[in-house]
Structures are given as structure tokens and as C-alpha cells.
Amino acid sequence: MTSPAIAIGRSATTVSYPSAWLYAVEVAFVSPAPPSEDQLVVEGSPEVVLNSENPITLNDSVLFASGSAVISAHASAVLDALAAAAVEGLLDGQRMRIDGHVDEIGSVAYNERLAADRAFAVAQRFIRIRPDLEGRIDAVGHGESELLNPLCRGDCPENRVVVISITG
């Protein structure tokens, strides 16, 4: 059985999170540059950085069961670490943006709702873990009319993601 994967930006290298986490999670990252004061660093993995130039893209299979907006148990450690990093590292005036994306499997209306529900579920999870984030997170759903990769049609895993970014 393979471990769930998290893609950060465009994949270049793979590292693993600490074994203390409930499940091993592979993380791909673009730049191992040291974090600056406006970057969020995930505890235990200094290479994993979230800032306005490096959004984090979470594969839907890491977060949700197929066709669901209920966050899976094995996604908890990842979301908990990201929420903690957000509280510690968001600068004044900065916000987190959660973008839920889907592919073309299912009806247009179903996918619009699923994308919004997934973005909202991740935002609510962050707020539940770290109440300090309330009022600093925007959740946006992107249905099949706004495919992340419009060249990948139908059943396309690269379109079924949640993107977490910093704005402001």
C-alpha cells in the first residue's frame, strides 16, 4: 500500500514527514530555499514552506474519499501542521485562501457543490484546530468550468485538488 502524497507547487523532489505522524506522507517540493519571515514552515519539515509564491496543493485522495467532502482520518496530521504553521506565521493583513478543485466526473451542479464543500471543509478544519484563523481564511470552490488543468479532461487526478495559499 502506498502512502498518500502531497504535492507542493510543481514536484521536483520527494521527502518524508517525521515518523511520529500517524501515517507517512510523501511531500514533493519545489524550492529548498530557507524560509523568510513571510513564509510558513510545517513543523518537522523545514523544506515545506507556504507563502504567497509557493501555494500547497493537496491531492484529493489525501484529504477525501471519492466524491466526498468529509476529511479523511489520515489527513489530520497534515492539516493540523498547516493550521499551526498558519497561526504562527501569518503576517498582519495576510489571509489564507483555500481553493477546492474538481474534475469533470459527475454533473456540473454536483461538481460545483463538491468543490465548494471541500474548500469549506478544509477551512473549517483549520479554524477548529486553530480558532485564531477565524476571519482570516477564504474558501472558494472551482467546478468543472474552472479546471485547474483544462487540458486534462474527464477523470483527471491533477484537477481534483485543494490548493492552500497566502494572500495579502
Features:
3 helices; 60s Ribosomal Protein L30, Chain: A; 9 strands; alpha+beta; 168 residues; 7-stranded mixed beta sheet; two-stranded antiparallel ribbon
Largest sheet: 7 strands, mixed
Shape estimate = globular
Secondary-structure-based class equals alpha+beta
**Termini gap:** 40 Å
List the helices and strands and how they pair.
Layout: E1 5-8, E2 13-16, E3 26-29, E4 40-41, E5 49-50, E6 56-59, H1 60-63, H2 76-89, E7 95-101, H3 108-129, E8 137-142, E9 161-167
Parallel strand pairs: 1-3, 7-8
Antiparallel strand pairs: 1-6, 2-3, 4-5, 6-9, 7-9
Helix pairs in contact: 2-3
Descriptive account of the structure:
The protein has helices at residues 60-63, 76-89, 108-129; strands at 5-8, 13-16, 26-29, 40-41, 49-50, 56-59, 95-101, 137-142, 161-167. A seven-stranded mixed sheet has the order 2-3-1-6-9-7-8. A two-stranded antiparallel sheet has the order 4-5. The protein has one domain (5-167): OmpA-like domain (60s Ribosomal Protein L30, Chain: A), CATH 3.30.1330.60. β7, α3 and β8 (137-142) form a beta-alpha-beta unit. Mean pLDDT is 74; it is low at 1-47. The chain is built from three helices and nine strands; from the N terminus they run ββββββααβαββ. The protein has 168 residues and is of the alpha+beta class.
